[in-house]
Here is the input.
Amino acid sequence: MKRMSLLLMIFMLLIGYNVKTNAQGEAAVPFLLLAPDSRAGGIGESGGGLADNSAAIFWNPAGIAFLSGSEISFTHANWLPQFQLDLFYEYLTYRQYVEELGGSVTASITYMNFGEFARTGQNSPEIIGTFRSFDAALTLGYATKVHSDWGLGFNFRVIHSRLADKGAGEEQGSGVATSVSFDLAAMWRPQELNIPFIGDFGNRLSIGANLSNIGPEIYYIDQAQADPIPTNFRLGFALRLLQDDYNSLTYTLDFSKLLVDRIDTTQSSGDRTKWYSSIFTAWADDPMSEELRDIVTSMGLEYWYGDPKDFMFALRAGFFYEDPSYGNRKFITLGAGIRYDLYGFDFSYITTDVFQGGENHPLSDTLRFTLLIGWGSTPDKTKGFPRGI
Here is the structure.
């Protein structure tokens, strides 16, 4: 049990939870913040403005409003490889445009495996059994256009966390918890946008916002020990820098902030701030200068070459930055992808070696692999902004 607690603590710190001496509580189920797919993983984990494939369910579900046809994808990653632990992450997505509904229905399954653990006696090192730990989430969503330039997306999510099948020591209950959350997202992708003295940005610019994991606290033993889920705000930009019949180059930029109030665990659950108020109050926990430092910045470049109707390949690179006082994650990402007919393959790679002290960082050498099949898109959807679906 001690090994599991240590593993989960390291895991939460490494995905960027605020490290503050005055913090008395943080969010549970941190796997909901992990960048799940290889394509966005290759561009610095910045997908809030691009959001033009089924992985947009995570990044910005409103981006799916601009897509037609169907797509299914599967991503696998061994997580924190430097620890050589049995951690892996899997992400399955599906989207389907339904003309009768005027939009697309979506679904995804997220699964984080923590491995198998040994159970010992309360006052003895003797092993009396084993159990497996995992977190999982099922997400259902809908995305539609409300204007030729505007898309909206909504997700509903069931979260299940199984840290242990029994409580520790004399504790009643078990380490199993279930909760729900939802996401609200919007995307602006103008077909015509002429900015004086700068140029024409029609079908070249995309701006998206996603407020994800809005929902009640989750608890394992009793409600008095509940923790918030990781409500997160993401603002994303994507700009097509170059496009012709065979080439495209896109720049992406994301800003994200965790909207979780710090919890005083000495308070009863009835005295705590309501979960939905943290969407507003989390911006004012500290002076504005500190709140701005709490924002994570990520960016990337994606280059595609080929015929969208036949074969294409992509090269990707990105940068992820988190303030040293708020997690201190800094890494470079690299990636590549191919599309042939209905099929696609992407992979991404994280390296921290270029930064001082990053040679042995647990995130370094993380690889993600994604397989996808997409079919039924109308011809005009393979041109313009959503290239490389």
User: Anything to note?
Assistant: The helical segments are 2-14, 38-42, 56-59, 278-281, 288-293.
